[in-house]
Amino acid sequence: MEKRPWPQVENKDFGDAAVVIIGAGIAGMCTAIDLIRKNNCRNFIILERGSGIGGTWNDNRYPGCCCDVPSIMYSFSFEQNPNWSRKYPGQEEILNHLHAIAEKWGLYRHTRFNSAATDARWDDEEMKWKTTVKICGDKDSEYSSGYTITSDFLVSAVGQLNEPKMPSIPGLDSFKGKIMHTARWDWSYDLEGKRIAVIGNGATGIQVVPELVKVASHVTQYIRTPGWIIPRLDTSVSTLQRLAYQYSPPLLWRHRAEIFTWMDNTFKKVVWNPENPESKMARQWNRALLQATWPKDEELWEKLTPDYPPGCKRILFSDDYYPALTKPNCSLEMRPISRITESGIEVEGGDVEEFDLIVCATGFHAGAYFVRAIDVQGEGGRPISDIWRHYPQALYGISLESLPNFGMLYGPNTNLNHSSIILMIEAQSNYISGLVEEVLYAKKLGLPLAITPKKDRLEEFNEMVQEKLKETSYSHPTCNSWYKSPDGKRVVANWCGSVVEYQTQLSKIAWSDYDVKGAAAEVVLKGKKEKKIGRVVEETMVSNMALATGVLGAVAVVGGCLLHANGYLRRFQRR
Ligand code: NA7
Questions:
Q1: Which of 110, 270, 408, 473 has minimal Cβ neighbours within 10 Å of its Cβ?
Q2: Is the pTM of this model over 0.90?
Q3: What is the extent of the structural domain holding 73?
Q4: Which helix (H) or strand (E) holds 330?
Q5: CA angle 489–491–497, rounded 5-degree value
Q6: Cα of 422 from ligand 1 centre, angstroms
Q7: Among protein residues, the one whose CA lies closest to atom 27 of ligand 1
Q8: Rounded distance between C-alpha atoms, residue 502 and residue 264, angstroms
Q9: Quick check: is 568 in a domain?
Q10: How many whole angstroms from 154 Cα to the centroid of ligand 1?
Q11: Blockwise average pLDDT, block size 10, the chain, 575 residues
């Protein structure tokens, strides 16, 4: 039987940890798992404002919520799921998958739910972070309303899309019916037979409308800007295929590698340059879908065709959105909303429609708000509002000026429009675990250590990113999206290249990027220029033909050897 010390000691460390991770979504989970598997460290605390693991997949539970990245790409490389039921997984299935991973890696015992980090302050003398936690849960807050955790390293894994954004429309507060944001869905509200308005038609709006149309007496969708919608071609994954993936993982890895490579090479081009053939192909797919849905309504095709290039905003995949708009109980309103009344929505021109429910599929406070709800203060008490007074930026989207021993996941210029964000998160988590390793080593020696990015390197990196982004659809003069800063002058959310380029950039820590201070600095660096941390190589290195030839060749060699050995054995037995 395991010997446990008595009295138990874990509770005494309540306010102390080597690493604090803010957020229990995919990024926070990945960081925690990397601490366990790469740093052999369980001295960490995950702070989660909500009451469950899963981040965005826990927050977004609206009807029809699903992922628009193929399921095969939507898992950690080290926890691939052979059992996805569909080509594009639904929210509940993704959340169940994440729960299983949290369970497997024992993350629950590190996670404090209903615990919001309100501020985090770097202590220059102690060379540690002091994170203030507000307890949001009713019962837990009877013990105390909040407390502070001291840690050697701080990780922000709060994501880019965690603060729902309500539309700023006059009269919104005066509406007497029900209002819901899609990221705060109230399932206790009965939709049956209701008159429903949906504001917004981004990735969320186009998923929720087809489901609402099935139950509502009427749905009106308010569209300010049409999106580029192309077919999703969703199907279920057959039992045979799932069994094949389960019992022969190389088949799963190979299929994932093919999709990864296609997305990172071909699909990237759709978003990359408005003039290239792939971008034109996306326009054609959209036009074909419009024509197939409304064969005779040329005026509507024009109305629903965006005037900005594909890739400027999220490219939208759907098989059921346009068909839902053709249902008799669904209408489209493209006149601008002028105000919301006590009972409905008024559009320009004065027409008012009455509703029981207004659904705001209006997105999130993104862009400039990477750590919106947390007051972060670095060296000399410098607040993040000053560090980012111009634009949010970070070295590789991870390390911030004046913030020692700090790592951010899914930070500035790390979002994608062409592939799975999990691939980027894994690369960031891997990089952060490389920095944490040094801090843990210093901790073991009992010596302080502070690793902070150099301002000139950070700026040089961001200039390179911005220069590359200038040519992309994100920067097109007609493009207006949450990828840009509020003044519209700079793309602050998205990465400027392929996933492989990003992963390669993060496959080593160049110490020339950082100022390393503290008594442990000499011991840690030992004159080294860089620290190799590697990357997960998932792209296809060989074609299917070369692979098939190789496998056949290997089978032939093994077969030949067996035959040869068989003949030799027979000769031997005859003697
Ligand atoms: P998005 O992509 O930010 O979409 C928000 C939608 O809401 C978009 O169509 C907006 O129109 C619309 N919107 C916002 N405010 C208003 C007002 N006041 N009136 C009318 N329409 C409005 O959020 P999603 O939740 O759909 O998707 C977020 C991300 O999740 C997505 O990019 C994927 O990465 C997954 P606009 O285009 O601004 O004219």
A1: 110
A2: yes
A3: 16-163+366-454+491-532
A4: strand 330-333
A5: 145
A6: 22
A7: 203
A8: 11
A9: no
A10: 31
A11: 62 91 98 97 96 97 97 97 96 98 97 96 97 94 95 96 95 98 98 98 98 98 97 96 97 96 87 85 96 97 96 95 98 98 98 98 81 89 94 96 97 95 98 97 95 98 97 92 92 95 97 96 87 92 61 62 63 55
